[in-house]
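Data deposition worksheet. Section B asks for the primary sequence of the deposited chain exactly as it was used as input, without tags or linkers unless they were present during the calculation. Section C holds the resulting structure in token form. Section D is free text for depositor observations; keep each observation to a single sentence. Incomplete worksheets are returned to the depositor.
Section A, Depositor: J.P.
Section B:
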Amino acid sequence: MKAVQQEITVTICEGGRPHLLYWQGHAHTVSVLLDQWRFGGRWWLDERPRDCYLVQAGTLVAELHHEDIPGGRWWLARLQD
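Section C:
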């Protein structure tokens, strides 16, 4: 997988899972949730805990991260190359 580390906009469905991700001017519908995990963050670097998702959205296989704070940002961590 290729590192991207770019903030993106994500629309969630009921239950808080990603439904649509917007990247490079296009909306990609999440068709399959391949994996989901929780990352505690590297506290010594002041990273916030986050929820991580590996999704398939059309031809994209993407790893998405969401900060565990109110209004937390979403970012595209990695893409399958």
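Section D:
The longest strand covers residues 2-12.
The radius of gyration is 12 Å.
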